[in-house]
Amino acid sequence: MVGAGLSGAVIGRHLAEAGHKITVLDSRDHIGGNCHTARDAETGVMVHVYGPHIFHTDDAEVWDYVNGFETFLPYKNRVKTTSLDPEGRRGVFSLPVNLHTINQFFGKTLRPEAAHEFITQEQADTSITDPQTFEEQALRFVGRDLYEAFFKGYTIKQWGVAPSALPASILKRLPVRFNYDDNYFFHKYQGMPENGYTAMIEKILDHPGITVKLETVFDQSQAADYDHVFYSGPLDGYFDYQLGRLGYRTLDFERFTHQGDYQGCAVMNYGEESVPYTRITEHKHFAPWESHDGSVCYREFSRAAEPEDIPYYPIRQVEEKALLGEYVALAEQAEGVTFVGRLGTYRYLDMDVTIREALDTARGFLAAAEAGNRA
Ligand code: FAD
Ligand code: UDP
Question: Where is the secretion signal located (predicted)?
């Protein structure tokens, strides 16, 4: 198993329970992959080391699975954003765009139906019938004023390209609501692991059939040491980048501390392009059941990943898609290895989807092995 993130842990556990002997390797000095959580040494606050992670899903089996390893406490993601209103006044607004945002931003007191009419008739660009790009999607559904305040600058900072060069699908992840529901997600099950994600993943890996080796880098030459490899590292990395590199955005976090409550919420986005960071995360608000006088915050900056950087978001623009196709062809020919997870398949995957795919992969592998034994 290459990678001690969710993919490696869930597949490893499933196969270990079926009697296989599993070795999990990770190049980092900790388990948990990008979901890793750790207590901040100075403040004692549980920190989401690689960026804010909120668990949300409609998948009952996955929800039961994670609750089988760790207590999940109720947590709703309520994000705020700082930006300029149409008069150029700086303010704090509610996300995702909802009735509160609309009324506050435009200085109105509209009820749901009137707000819907206002946005669709006075703001939205209805001449765009089939939005293809991020920008078209925004102009079509919220109009230029909201787009420029909340999405344009943030997206340029996050992705490093104009929103007209990005697919509409990125914005489709965010709802627009004509009521006061400010829950960032729609999902039925939402929560936060009481003791952090790493504690949960530690329990998933805690099985007599599993050996974890940290600070151990895997390369293709080691594949022969194992009956089968599940690889959750970067797809292009497995092939030694022989066709070139798949593009990623990476994140830099600037840590600072504060005595008391710095911003009053876990995540504050910054819509203005002139503010260099995309958001500030104040980690103690992810665990409202804990009490800490001190507070630790991360300012988050996004940039193109260099070879030595941690890959975070796959870019998946036109060039990357072509290169991805070539790597997928290589992956299909490779024997004895299954490419899994967000890096192994070069896709943005939420944690619940990662777990669902990991369970399906492990079951598929066991079923194929059993069919092979019978034949
Ligand atoms: P990873 O966690 O990346 O694990 C892969 C592991 O493989 C890493 O530990 C790496 O060190 C190791 N590795 C790679 N190559 C090698 C090698 N050659 N040798 C040895 N080890 C290697 N999901 C949500 O559901 N909710 C959220 O709020 C959320 N927020 C996110 C915020 C950010 C900023 C990011 C980037 C992602 C977020 N996600 C969120 C997604 C979540 O992080 C992923 O679903 C999850 O981390 C995927 O797990 P994985 O095991 O596939 O990959
Ligand atoms: N986005 C934005 N402004 C915001 C929040 C999000 O423009 O305040 C855009 C941005 O391009 C982001 C996309 O919407 O990549 C999807 O948002 P989400 O919160 O899902 O981002 P992620 O969790 O991927 O960081």
Answer: none
